[in-house]
């Protein structure tokens, strides 16, 4: 048996999928979880699974499955998009799963199932569909999640109730494989075709609040001020210096949200709340960074007479990829694209991180042009898409041997 | 003739005035321009002017006047408050004007008129009532101003149409005197009773925008980021250093408003817009600070690959107080509170700055406990209020001689 993937059919399906919720701007899509285009895309996908000879299933949260008989490898990702998203984020992994399951069926084996998880992009939570399926979040808790408009997850998933069957028993799968665009610049800048993911980085996320003294911007002399925006600015500059000896080139940290109260030109602010998020592949480093953050915030507060408080720390642990599956992907990459691949971390969270609770998982990346993602401009050269598919297909044969061993 | 002010009557009127819109929290008031409590307070004030023997007038924007016969000195301030204001901000100067005009009338001279300007606190503009009266803003432009709820100045002032007469001819006044709480900490910290204002500082105000590149907070390495929030933080730290050799202890600068776009924990911001306001008594220094601000913003932008843009610069020039009136206030202060007064700048804008377009003006400050203002907690010891009134009353006699000379 030898899987014969068909690049033309694969690309055709990818382009068909992007018509669901096409933004009308480049190849961009607007296909958030449970929107009409998202549901229509999932129904189209179920038909493709059925055409391929797979048994189709929608689970209670709207993830759609194409199931091979007996024990099988599972391949997939998600077909919901960001509010303003690209055509490949999630869709690539879903159509890779479809094509490889289809080609494997045509070849008479190995057994490959396919999936498109629901709400990976976090309209309600984060990787909601795969977290509920894997038990990371229970359905009752998930049902209480709301989107930014106040719609509950329970009401959203009720939109697909007419399609819903039971949850799929995870014991039928031997492992999970997810192809994804890198969403960063490393492969593209290096002119490489494939990344074999070593681990999905851990994330720490919290809010920090400096409180000072709200005052008149004309009559309060500088030496009397306790301006928490200045505390935030100093904190940012200090942690950048202090992280220098702790981080790797892959470590990142971000303040993406800032609230300055009361927010008027003529009032010295009384309060500044801001988000602080950091990501790294090692729990130890995440912990060290947390120490630096807390120490620096405390020091800035003490120096300037501020009070400082922090929200609960939200933590997602780093998830290592299965060694045997990584090896299979690496061997296939060296065969298909010799010298044009690397092992690398995933800085973004993916469904594979949820599924890792249940079974061995691995991921493969293809380059993102200019590192752009979560935007209509997101794109990848078609030859790179096909190379990724070929590497994965070849790895599937290697893995089906390795995992059976 | 000798003006005999009556401290008891003065304090009684101040406490009566704070019942209009009493917040129910300490001595706080909620009496924004054109609110029911504001209009009721102005009607009460008109009755007090009439009781004192002054001719009352509401002008077309709702400023209320108590007019002495013939040429007179004008004394007053404003009786509208901040949305959450104190009992003395404006009210002190208004009741000083009432008491001195009343006492002068009882003494048979000198001729003193009184005024409470409308909307000093800027529900619609800034010092709107006195700016319209002085010609700094024409009524047609003012009518198009709106409050934060979208109500127009035209519709707001229509609420007082049944009271409105003509504008008062400014030529009947020989000068304008305004008593006010300091709203800052200098007098209180020094244990002094009176400040004689030398000038009202100039203000420069603009918005600065750094634009970088919006990106995924997990997949974009630090060396590839152009994060405009980091640019803003660096800018704040740099200008604080660079201003050091340029500013005086009275110079102030403030960033009170910050907008980080799109404002999500997991997205490296693409844009950061923030307000930059600075105040000083000297036009030259304001200009030098503007240079430093523009140079530093440009330098930060160039270093980090940002684009930087600025809004139009809003400028209010410094307003010097009349030398003869200052001298009269200083002599009176030395007589009433020897060694317990100082000359000082006003870091806040006041109606006197508008009126200075028309006639000589001067201002007197009394201490603010802990420098607090624009808050329910704003307060001043009653003995300091009375000392301020006494200094002003004595100065009025000196001035009426000086200005007639």
UniProtKB/TrEMBL annotation, chains A, B:
Entry note: cofactor: Binds 2 Zn(2+) ions per subunit.
Binding-site residues for Zn(2+) 1, renumbered to this chain: 78, 89, 180
Domain Peptidase M20 dimerisation per the UniProt entry, residue ranges: 202-302
Cofactor list: Zn(2+); Mn(2+)
Signal peptide interval: none
Annotated residues for binding of Zn(2+) 2: 89, 121, 374
Family: Belongs to the peptidase M20 family.
Subunit structure: Homodimer.
The protein, known as: Zn-dependent hydrolase
Native source species: Pseudooceanicola nanhaiensis
